[in-house]
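Why does this matter for the project? Reviewers at the last site visit asked to see concrete outputs rather than summary tables. In response, this paragraph embeds two records directly. Each consists of the residue sequence and, immediately after it, the corresponding structure tokens. Nothing has been edited or filtered.
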Amino acid sequence: MNRAAKVLIAINGVLATLALNPGVQSAIAGFAVHHPFLLVFGASLSSIGHLLTDSRKQAGVS
């Protein structure tokens, strides 16, 4: 695996971890009130978090 792919996987892991944190989600939402372009970023983080949570539940991982 090349270095760029490893970096993208690492970034994706960090974003996924942040997406699962409700405090981070609410902080992004509060900041996005003043910076509307962040609503898209916050929504994508939230979607990633929900997808990960759903897939973990289906796999039986707590």
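We now turn to the second protein, recorded in exactly the same manner.
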Amino acid sequence: MEIKRSWKRRFDQLEHLTRKERTLNISLENWQVENISKSRMQKSALRVIEDGSLGENFSLGRSEKAAEELVRGAEQSVQYGDKAVFSFSDHSLNSFHEREEKNYRAGQVDEIISFLEDVLDFFKSSAPDITLNLVFGKNYDEIQMETSRDAYLKDNLCNFSLMVSLPISGGGSQFYRSFESSEMFSGIPEAELEQFLREFRSAGEVSRPETGKMPVIFSPRSLYLFTFSLQEGLRADNVFRGISPLIEKLDSEIFSPKISVVDSPHMQEAGGRRFFDDEGIPTRRQKLVDEGVLKTFIYDLEHAAKMNAKPGGNGLRRDLFSSGIETPISPGMVNPTIEPGESSREEMISGVKNGILVENIVGFHSSNYSQGHFSVQAHGYHVREGKLQGRLEDVMIAGNIYDDFQKIKSVGRKLYPGNFGYYPYLLCPEIQVSSR
């Protein structure tokens, strides 16, 4: 704390964020251990305000030299910084729980190996002829925020993850399932893996739908095309700059009444759960879209000040292509979820006469996603007469979430982890599908 007292005398305001991270990752490729990696590091970010200007710098490590370089870099950057229109946080929050570190320590190597052996045994007994890839992760983060306005916030979280992927032989694609838990897995998710295998056996042959509009079932793993596009529209910085498609849409219907989108930052099983954001603002559950109606935008401190709004804990060091302590602050959803509905995945499939089930997408980054547009390659299955017919190949889907998601027919009753948040399966009755 002595160093931080000296820092306070050098600036009008300061904000110091520290993250201590421990990770263990084990990857298997084609049934064999490919890599085991372990890391432990501390990262820091310092934002300062001096004479009305904003500066920041980043560092790795916890040495006195790293700390001094952190301050010196912030002093230099503030000379060229943007005008500061806000003050740093003055909140206090201690959401540190000993159980999180206890959960991390409880997942010992022998227990992890036993768990992975159980997963391998399951697939060996059910499908010994497939190519199997696994990635297991164990992560523990401690996050601390202090400001010169007497803010002090502390949080920690532990997360275990498993990704099972099955490459298509000669097909150039793969299907996968992801699982998350805040503590070591107590057993393998047999029911989910059995369903995954049943689907995968339908991927042996290629089945190409005809080009045209048809029903599309979006899996939770593909729905980041919806969430990232929506996030761009919700971001207060985009609204302020006049480039959001949702300007003047508050309290208007933008999606089907079957769609409710909630930022759920305290969801226990979510790997990205947070009790405060990267600006020291406590997070909270926010219903962003309620039965299709837009209810609020998402704010960081800067744009809350510029737009006379209250920040809700959405100032994050994360964007579409990167995340980490060196990523600039911008408004973002912490852990987006789509509220579940009443349909099962099986009911959706059985009700489709001719359509597709999209498992994964490729090429989203090249879409005009900030305006809701998507044009992506779809990996998944052709659905005919209520059954999975074969895998997709050279199939594209295109549309706009603000048009196509007005027509959602069915929402799944169960949430699954996606690439960014938790989602159910969704059935849209008409999406443009192109096949070569």
